[in-house]
């Protein structure tokens, strides 16, 4: 789960605020005269206010969606931890929650997706995993789990903790 004012929060804030600042300054420069005042006001409005506000709305939505997703854990399994996650199904990053149990990895999507449903991977079938850093190596959250017949690509919050637990549960990887 993304925390307020974390590195991911500020990447979202700047990633929204700076392009909006540039676009709006250029747009207003076409219709008005470009000045240092316009440049400064747009910087304050978009980078310092709108960017963090946008990131705050996304964090609040993610928290709300995380709470709404309920993963049923089989009686013969013990829940280790739940993480906010996306599972790539084709080109779509399906948002939801991933549960790590002592026997499986279970992903369940939230309802605000085109593709919904639950994906269950037996931990003993996971033969390997690959990690990848995203967005110019700023976000360390991508992992691909490899089974005999399929690769599952995830974006997982707190990926390093997930990997530690997965290695503890499956010593063959």
State the major sheet: 7 strands, antiparallel
Q: CATH superfamily assignment of the largest domain?
A: Pleckstrin-homology domain (PH domain)/Phosphotyrosine-binding domain (PTB)
| Beta strand count | 7
Strand order of the largest sheet: 4-3-2-1-7-6-5
Radius of gyration: 20 Å
Give a description of the structure.
This protein has helices at 7-31, 36-68, 159-169, and strands at 79-89, 92-101, 104-109, 118-122, 128-134, 139-146, 151-156. By secondary structure, it is α+β, with helices and mostly antiparallel strands. The chain folds into 2 domains: 7-67; 72-169, PH-domain like. β2 (92-101) and β3 form a beta hairpin. The longest helix has 33 residues, at 36-68.
Question: Helices and strands in order, then pairings?
Answer:
Elements: H1 7-31, H2 36-68, E1 79-89, E2 92-101, E3 104-109, E4 118-122, E5 128-134, E6 139-146, E7 151-156, H3 159-169
Antiparallel strand pairs: 1-2, 1-7, 2-3, 3-4, 5-6, 6-7
Helix pairs in contact: 1-2
